[in-house]
Design a protein that fits this description.
The complex is a heterotrimer of chains A (803), B (166) and C (266). With 803 residues, chain A is α+β, with helices and mostly antiparallel strands. Among the domains of chain A are: 362 residues, 2-Layer Sandwich (Aldehyde Oxidoreductase, domain 4); 147 residues, Aldehyde Oxidoreductase, domain 4 (2-Layer Sandwich). Chain A contains 20 helices and 28 strands. In chain A, the strands form 7 sheets. A 7-stranded mixed beta sheet of chain A has the order 3-5-1-12-9-10-11, sandwiched between helices. In chain A, helix 9 runs parallel beside helix 18 and helix 15 packs across helix 16. Chain A is globular and about 85 Å long. With 166 residues, chain B is α+β, with helices and mostly antiparallel strands. Chain B folds into 2 domains: 75 residues, Beta-grasp domain (Ubiquitin-like (UB roll), Roll); 74 residues, [2Fe-2S]-binding domain (DNA polymerase, domain 1, Orthogonal Bundle), CATH 1.10.150.120. In chain B, 37% of the residues lie in helices and 14% in strands. Chain B has 6 helices and 5 strands. Helices cover 33% and strands 22% of the residues of chain C. In chain C, strands 4-5-8-6-7 form a 5-stranded antiparallel beta sheet. In chain C, strands 9-10-11-12 form a 4-stranded antiparallel beta sheet, sandwiched between helices. A 3-stranded parallel beta sheet of chain C has the order 1-3-2, with helices on one face. The chains are: A alpha+beta (803), B alpha+beta (166), C alpha+beta (266). Chains in contact: A-B, A-C, B-C. The interface between A and B is large, with 61 and 56 residues.
Chain lengths: 803, 166, 266
């Protein structure tokens, strides 16, 4: 058995139907996907649509002297060539970062202008310089090649650790030393105190490698302008179409919201990279009006490597102080975060409030201080990628725990156990208040499933074959269910992070659920319908979930940060509460009973203590025909909306265990076993939850062993295609053992915490703890690919010993 | 412009194409069969896998004109009416897909694996056979399960085999 | 890709005439290397001569002394061919390591040799097995066929028709893949032939596949992995990139050679 059932949830609601909460319901959306009838942005064909292609910078840093596009604009099939000056003439504003961070000295972050097409200079390889609109993609490409750009090359810096140095070229005039902010969280004096009292200190230096998200569907945008109403429609590959509309309207100024419709149809994976508002969408919209034709841009994969925001890219020094008994006294972290050449939509929040606030991990740590410098470099902008800040925090603290255990000569599992938070709520020194959890339960279950006890025998068996074997743990915590609006507002967020829902009951009793969440693989069409089926006692086939269209759903904040369950579904619960309350009134009139005597169970409204009843469908019909009540007493209809603002973050946590075997001759690391035990609170659909964990783990293993965006010193992206950027393949991964423990979340009506990012957050530390265990040295950077491991072995002289 | 004719999902088709048209572009843009996807430009992701004359190929790495006279099967031709093919059903039953983008290529590859390797497929074989198909959502775990289950289900579904067994 | 004129050749003579007639014409066999290059606009042939409809380039024949494979044999066919599996099982195994199953359904032996990608697998087999490349004009020993990165001695209007691989007594191929592209970082083909041992390396050379005389001499004395202990290939002149430094490649050549010899010995 490679997996064991995760269907251990129980919510106190009915849970008895085969399609209710807790059931592994097969997905409603799958029929269209397995038959090739999905409808992705690139599948949409608008009459007369033409192609958009971008001329991108080949230099990492250069001043633009002149752009000559006259010849290109007269080439066959070309409708227009657009430059940054054209966009400025259209009065389109720059792209913005929506989260204000203040430096320690109180000054606001140094956000440089970020026009969709650059005007004065290029600051990274791949930056859009000009756009060509032509009849066919090849014609657009031909014309782009004919545009002549005179560059005056400037020196570039790509390494975040070097960006603040005296020799580094200045990338934006507004940001001296290329420093966007110098920010801190926690109590430096308390930490200094703790370190002064410490019996021992563990110090580590870590690089959290830069990753490229690589959703398999490349991004795309199809923009259409209606001259009659001067309004726009944008189909795009977005995780949050409403936020895209808000930014494109309020900040970029394409059109006011009521004249801009954004539709995100089926979206082929996001992992963060499709949250952001990108230059290509702005240009597509502007171009659609200029050429009066629908304009389509579909990203090539190699283009995506420089067009999509990257993730991670931290350089960190961290120290952990222990007392004589192995209890943590304090934690000190200094991180330089690379934000790339421009600030992407949410970039500033990732290395700050999504990172430093999680540095307490699962542990009771009395004093924590974290300082973060965010820097500009001549690289692709960096923003949220699956986990966003929390994988970086987990990597810091879980590497520290493992290294400390080895240094102190104690079992890494026991050092963790000794320091676990035991009582809840628990206030950490870094803002977060953990509401519930049972970290020992996850640890114990994971150790048992991973046969932690039997590792010694397996290691001896490997060594007998000339192989090195290691085991590593990662007891992670994350903050999901993002987020209480008031709280994030006080921390600099430009928006509230509630979610909306509307439940529309039709006269025949079928239901449409409109949600501000967006599904791009998460299975909302199924899980959200499960919730409604469970609550209203109606067949799941009579429920449809509507999302991703600003003309249908009034507003929403979208899907990221594992928020759709805890926040999006809670909004649906709130709307369902209102539907039930209204339906109860209708039923009271139908059944000629007092509203107080109406009970709703198993899909029927009953008069308590009698056999008088009406099904949900009958009540729905009566709500619309309105024959049984007067308009003075009750409004007809059955449609309710709700906004849900969470009261706290949720705190999924768990323990992942990785076991590796290394071929010392080649340096190749093989994952032999991977065990994940997660506490996601209550679970709506265990099948889907397991799938989310699997995918996250694969990305986490990818970060640890394979993936890295590599720039050379001149700022060229060396890993600019699948020929050089290593994507995890089936053969690189083992079967995964996935299980759960449950502490229901007290903060939302369903008791759920979120599961989308756990694997990506937990896995890198588990893998690297196993790799360093096998190699017998802590000095192993990610990704631990064969070349890296071979070099480590060379340095350690282990190769000779193994031969 | 050259004219190309072929049979796609049992239907004869004929169209004038720019010679540079890739088979995948022909299927998607000319025939509007958009179930076949494009996920990369280096022939690696496998989202575009279709069958040409019975074998799996990457339709992004073949010119439309090279498919002259060929029998092409795309994901749209796999189900029998509203009844899913056993391999499609296996993906649904085993949660072998999330965003669905790589899925058509995965299923077309899976059918090709069964053709070559039979109905009893172990974990290792399936993983090695998926060398040319990338998925970013599932971690492959449930895709491997789906293909093993689908292959077994196809054994029961295959009339020729049933006859042979009788 | 850039525009070009397409020709579907129905016979060899027509194909070579078309190649002779048009400057910058290129033959296309499986197209699994050429088409990606054209898509990236890194290759821009004026004319493309498609060999897929040409008769007589497909057979696989096993004689008592050699395995003769048609130039248009797909990797997938070579991989499962009973003749290849009987005659040179190492070659069947190598064909099954190229690209992925879908690529193997299109890619061809002749195309791979003519392209001479320094990280391709077949060049190592051709060198180690002492193959003879038969063309429309002549017979070329493998040792004289390859002429540097993506270069061979083929003339613009010369096509490979078949390749003759003399049967070795023992042979094996070991490949260490580039984790991204899955091409060879180092691939070593060892062949114990009636009169000599050959060791050929692909993936590592800065100018293509090459033989390792020092390894061959040592294995000639005794065909055993231990014979290679203490021997190494100098790192100078080897390829170096983010996936493998020249030193690492030099080291892997030794590892893969030892493993290949062990595999050949069964």
């Amino acid at each position: 058995m490679s997996t064991s059932g995760a269907g251990t949830s129980g919510t106190g609601t009915s849970g008895t139907t085969a399609t209710g909460i807790g059931a592994p319901v097969r997905r409603k959306e799958d029929f269209r996907f397995v038959t090739g009838n999905g409808r992705y942005t690139a599948d949409i064909d608008r009459p007369g649509q033409v192609c958009l292609h971008f001329l991108r910078s080949t230099h990492a840093h250069a001043r633009i002297v002149r752009i000559q596009a006259g010849h290109a604009s007269r080439m066959p099939g070309v409708l227009a060539v657009i430059t940054g000056q054209d966009l400025a003439a259209d009065k389109l504003g720059p792209l913005v970062c929506g989260w204000m961070i203040h430096s320690t000295d109180g000054s606001p972050m140094k956000m440089a202008p970020h026009p969709a097409l650059t005007v004065d200079a290029v600051r990274y390889v791949g930056e859009p310089v000009a756009a060509v609109i032509a009849q066919t993609p090849e014609q657009a490409r031909d014309a782009a090649e004919a545009i002549i750009v005179d560059y005056e090359e400037l020196p570039a810096v790509v390494d975040p650790a070097a960006a603040q140095g005296p020799d580094a070229p200045l990338i934006h005039a507004v940001a001296p030393n290329n420093t966007i902010f110098h920010w801190q969280l926690g109590d430096a004096a308390a930490v200094a105190d703790a370190f002064a009292r410490a019996a021992s200190v563990t110090s580590i230096d870590l690089v959290n490698n830069r990753l490229v998200p690589n959703a398999i569907e490349p991004r795309g945008a199809l923009a259409e302008w209606d001259p009659g109403s001067d309004s726009y429609t944008l189909w795009n590959t977005s995780q949050n179409p409403h936020v895209a509309r808000l930014v494109l309207s309020a900040f970029v100024g394409v059109a006011p919201e009521h004249r801009l419709r954004v539709v995100a149809p089926d979206v082929g994976g996001g992992f963060g990279s499709k949250i952001f508002i990108y230059a290509e969408e702005v240009v597509a919209l502007a171009a659609a009006k200029r050429v009066r034709r629908p304009v389509r841009w579909i990203c090539d994969r190699s283009e995506a490597f420089v067009a999509d925001a990257h993730g991670r890219d931290h350089v960190t020094h961290a120290q952990m102080a222990f007392d004589r008994d192995g209890r943590i006294l304090g934690l000190r972290v200094k991180t330089i975060a690379n934000l790339g050449a421009y600030m992407s939509t949410f970039s500033s929040s990732i290395p700050t409030y999504l990172y430093a606030t999680l540095l307490s991990g699962q542990y009771a740590i009395p004093a924590i201080h974290c300082a973060v410098d965010a820097v500009y470099t001549n690289t692709v902008p960096v923003d949220a990628y699956r986990g966003a800040g929390r994988p970086e925090a987990t990597y810091v603290i879980e590497r520290l725990m493992e290294v400390s255990a080895r240094r102190l000569g104690v079992d890494p599992a026991e050092l963790r156990r000794k320091n676990f938070v035991q009582t809840f709520p628990h206030q950490t020194p870094v803002i977060m208040s953990y509401d519930c959890g049972d970290y020992a339960a996850s640890l114990d279950k994971a150790l048992a499933l991973a046969d932690y006890q039997g590792f010694g025998a397996r290691r001896r068996e490997s060594e007998a074959r000339g192989r090195l074997r290691g085991i590593g743990l990662s007891a992670y915590i994350e903050a999901c269910g993002i987020a209480p609006s008031q709280a994030v507002g006080s921390l600099g967020a430009g928006v509230g992070l509630w979610e909306s829902a509307e439940v529309r009951v039709n006269p025949t009793g079928t239901v449409e659920v409109l949600t501000g969440s967006h599904s791009h693989g998460q299975g909302h069409e199924t899980t959200f319908a499960q919730l409604v089926s469970d609550r209203l006692g109606i067949p799941i086939d009579t429920i449809s979930v509507v999302h991703g269209d600003t003309d249908k759903v009034q507003f929403g904040m979208g899907t990221y940060g594992s928020r759709s369950g805890a926040v999006g579904m809670s909004a649906i619960v709130k709307a369902l509460d209102k539907v039930e309350a209204k339906a109860r009134k209708v039923a009271a009139h139908m059944l000629e009973a007092s509203e107080a005597d109406i009970v709703f169970e198993n899909g029927a409204f009953k008069v308590a203590g009698t056999d008088r009843a009406a099904t949900f469908g009958e009540v729905a019909l009566n709500a619309y025909i309105a024959h049984k009540f007067s308009g003075a007493e009750l409004e007809p209809g059955l449609k309710e909306g709700a906004f849900y603002d969470p009261v706290n973050f949720t705190f999924p946590a768990g323990c992942h265990v990785c076991e590796v075997e290394i071929d010392p001759e080649t340096g190749r690391v093989a994952i032999e076993r991977f065990t994940a035990v997660d506490d996601f609170g209550n679970i709506i659909n265990p099948m889907i939850v397991e799938g989310q964990v699997h995918g996250g783990i694969a990305q986490g293993i990818g970060q640890a062993l394979m993936e890295q965006a590599v720039y050379d010193d001149s700022g060229q992206l060396v890993t600019g295609s699948y020929n050089d950027y290593v994507m995890p393949r089936a053969v690189d991964l083992p079967p995964l053992v996935v299980d759960t423990t449950v502490t229901p979340c007290p903060g939302n009506p369903l008791g759920i915490k979120g599961c989308g990012e756990a694997g990506a957050i937990a896995a890198p530390a588990a893998v690297m703890n196993a790799v360093t265990d096998a190699l017998g040295t802590e000095e192993v950077p990610m990704p631990a690919n064969p070349l890296t491991v071979w070099r480590v072995l060379q340095k350690a002289g282990r190769l000779q010993a193994a031969e | 412009m050259p004219v190309v004719s072929m049979t796609v999902n049992g239907n004869p088709v004929r169209a004038e194409v720019d010679v540079r048209t890739l088979l995948v572009q022909f299927l998607r843009e000319t025939l509007r069969l958009t179930g076949t996807h494009v996920g990369c430009d280096t022939s690696q992701c496998g989202a575009c896998v279709v069958h040409v004359n019975g074998v799996a190929v990457k339709s992004c790495t073949m010119l439309a004109v090279q498919a002259e006279g060929a029998e092409v099967l795309t994901i749209e031709g796999v189900a029998r009416g509203d009844a899913l093919h056993p391999m499609q059903e296996a993906f649904r039953q085993n949660h072998g897909l999330q965003c669905g983008y790589c899925t058509p290529g995965m299923i077309m590859t899976a059918l090709d694996i069964v053709r070559r390797k039979g109905h009893e497929l172990d974990d290792r074989t399936i993983r090695e056979e998926l060398e040319g198909n990338l998925c970013r959502c599932t971690g492959y775990h449930n895709i491997v399960k789906s293909i093993a289950a689908g292959a077994r289900a196809m054994a029961g579904d295959d009339p020729a085999r049933q006859q042979a067994a009788e | 890709m850039y525009d070009f004129t397409y020709h579907r050749a129905s016979g060899l003579r027509q194909a070579t005439n078309l190649l002779a007639k048009h400057e910058d014409a290129k033959p296309i066999a499986g197209g699994q290397s050429l088409l990606p290059m054209m898509k990236f606009r890194l290759a821009s042939p004026s004319n493309l001569v498609d060999l897929n409809a040409v008769e007589g380039l497909n057979g696989i024949e096993l004689t008592s002394r050699a395995l003769v494979i048609g130039a248009m044999a797909r990797h997938a066919e070579v991989h499962v061919s009973p003749q290849v599996q009987q005659g040179i099982p190492a070659l069947a195994a190598l064909a099954g390591m190229i690209g992925d199953p879908a690529v193997r359904h299109r890619g061809t032996l002749g195309g791979s040799l003519a392209n001479n990608d320094p990280t391709a697998d077949y060049p190592a087999a051709a060198l180690a097995l002492g193959a003879t490349i038969v063309t429309t004009k002549r017979k070329i020993p493998a040792d004289e066929f390859f002429a540097g990165l993506f270069e061979t001695v083929l003339e613009p209007d010369e096509l490979i028709t078949k390749v003759s691989f003399p049967l070795p007594k023992k042979a094996a191929y070991q490949k260490f893949r580039n984790p991204a592209s899955r091409y060879a970082i180092v691939g070593v083909f060892v062949a114990k032939r009636p009169a000599e041992v050959r060791v050929a390396v692909t993936g590592a050379g800065a100018s293509g596949a090459f033989r390792v005389p020092a390894f061959e001499e040592a294995l000639q004395k005794r065909f055993h992995p231990k014979s290679l202990e203490g021997l190494s290939v100098p790192a100078e002149g080897l390829a170096s990139d983010i996936h493998a430094s020249a030193e690492y490649r030099a080291h892997l050549i030794g590892v893969m050679a030892r493993r290949a010899v062990a595999a050949a010995n069964g």
